[in-house]
Here is the input.
Amino acid sequence: MDNFTVAADTNGGKYQHLHITQPADLYQPGQIVYRQAWSWQQQLVAQRKQAPTLPDVLILIEHSPVYTLGHGASNDFLKFDPATSEVSTYRIERGGEVTYHCPGQLVGYPILNLRRHRTDLHWYLRTLEAVLIESLSMLGLPAHRIDGLTGVWVEGRKVAAIGIKVSRWITFHGFALNVCPDLSGFEQIVPCGIANYPVGSLTQFIPGLTVAEVQPIVLKTFGERFGLRWHLKNITQIATSVRSSDP
Here is the structure.
């Protein structure tokens, strides 16, 4: 039988109505190279285009060092030549400018069918921000938005970036929360094309904090916000489930 949970109003933060939680698949494969995780997302999205009733998915992951650019991102925000860099650079489907991923950063890739939630991209972006703001509040950090920008800040430092793609109302790509990364990789870019706000990490405010400590908080808050209950899956099941859904 489905469980009941309380859904929050993302504007006011007040709990206003009850809804039934839905099952969702959770993958937590640890640290993975970017290209592999990108391929997994593409497989999961393709699968859900074929069979829209399949459950929502969240992949929580860390990456080896990598730069990614949105499909329309400008190379002007790169301070290096990708052709000669030891760190890989990928131009991908999401919106937004260049960002950096590395160990110590909690990356979330939600594969959600927004027809089950709300077919509104503004609502989706603001809800992702709300998940992170509430999670950081549970750690005692006063996280907030900045009008006109996407992401999450603490004391003027951008600690979380968000970049998404939606196809047939199925989401992919997602958010990156700087827990305890080496921030030096950000010095080679203008992160998200925003020059007037520095990038920060949670360990600048809570020394010693780890991804392992933050991950369950984000997972709990995400489930509450989107009305999902998690079923942990093995990452090898992605390819198996895609093959089984082929005609």
About this structure: Helices lie at 34-50, 121-138, 211-226, 237-245.
